[in-house]
Amino acid sequence: MNQSLVDRVTPIFREVLQMPGLELTRDLDATQVENWDSLNHISLIIAIETGLELEFDTEELHQLTKVGEMIDLIEKKLNRK
Amino acid sequence: MMRESVSHDLLDRSFEDLEVGMTASYDITISHEDIREFSSITGDLAPVHFDPDFAASMGYRKPVAFGLLVFARFSGLLGMVLPGPRSVIHASSFSMKKPVYAEDRLTYIVEITRVVKSVKVVFLSLKVLRDKDDLVLQGETRCGFVR
Fold first, then answer.
1. Do A61 and B147 touch (CB under 8 A)?
2. Shortest Cα distance, chain B CAs vs residue A30, angstroms
3. What does pTM read for this prediction?
4. From chain B, which residues contact A within 8 Å (Cβ)?
5. Distance between CA B137 and CA B95 in Å, rounded?
6. CB contact under 8 A, B121 and A39
7. Which residues of A touch B144 (CB under 8 A)?
8. How near does any CA of chain A get to the CA of B28, in Å?
9. What is the CATH number of domain B15-145?
């Protein structure tokens, strides 16, 4: 994963999920993180869109299952800017 | 005075109909009956809401309406009009700016401040005005649409 991007996204995950010690790994998904429920997932997406000044498409969000895929998508979007 | 009947014209909007700047409002009065019923539901019998002398001892000119009751009256506007019946509240916050008393004439105003298309969420500012221009409550809410 793009480490500088992980460093930018990690504080957002920690704040939204209220888990200060959370470490992001490529294979991490919502089923492994207690506070990552459907409502917090929406909060997470909104916080990432706000913090990184980008917009996701609904369809591409549906295809994401793991953190690594999300980081890859964010990287692709930022490179397009 | 019995609870005022408010006409909510159900507006079955889809998420795609919503834009930043859209507003909705209605005028209501919170009655003594509303306050009694809210107290019965919540179990909050604090005298500041019922006893004029106690309220005066706290600096209020009359018993004050429950802040949560004042806020709760947004529910009809949010659920029936804007964003409408296809949405649910995800989160809300508010602050009371001034005390509200029974029989105050209140105007409730909601305005869309942000639309997040990817997750079908809208943010709205919330205001309650007394006599059209006296701000008594200010807040915000996030409402989501089922995908």
1. no
2. 16
3. 0.89
4. 90, 116-121, 144, 147
5. 6
6. no
7. 42
8. 32
9. 3.10.129.10
Q: How do strand B134-145 and strand B105-116 relate by DSSP bridges? A: unpaired
E-strand stretches of chain B? 23-29, 87-96, 105-116, 121-130, 134-145
> Which distant-in-sequence residues (6+ apart) come within 8 Å of B60 by Cβ?
B48, B99
Collapsing DSSP to helix, strand or coil, B60 comes out as: coil
Q: How far apart are CA B64 and CA B100, in angstroms?
A: 6
pLDDT the model gives residue B1? 38
Least CB-CB distance to B90: which of A42, A45, A57?
A: A42
One-letter amino acid of A30: A
Cα gap A1→A7, rounded to integer Å: 10
Q: Which residues of A touch B118 (CB under 8 A)?
A: 45, 49, 55-58, 61
CA separation for the pair A32, A72 (Å, rounded): 20
d(CA B94, CA B105): 19
Tell me the nearest-neighbour CA distance from A57 into chain B, angstroms.
Answer: 5
What are the structure tokens assigned to B103, written together?
């029989």
Q: Are B105 and B119 in contact (CB under 8 A)?
A: no
User: Does domain A3-80 fall into CATH 3.40.140.10?
Assistant: no
Q: Please give the helix or strand (H or E) that residue A3 lies within, else none.
A: helix A3-17
pLDDT in tens, B77-125: 999 999 999 999 999 999 999 999 999 999 999 999 999 999 999 999 9
Domain-by-domain residue ranges, chain A? 3-80
pLDDT per residue as tens digits for the range A38-58 = 999 999 999 999 999 999 999
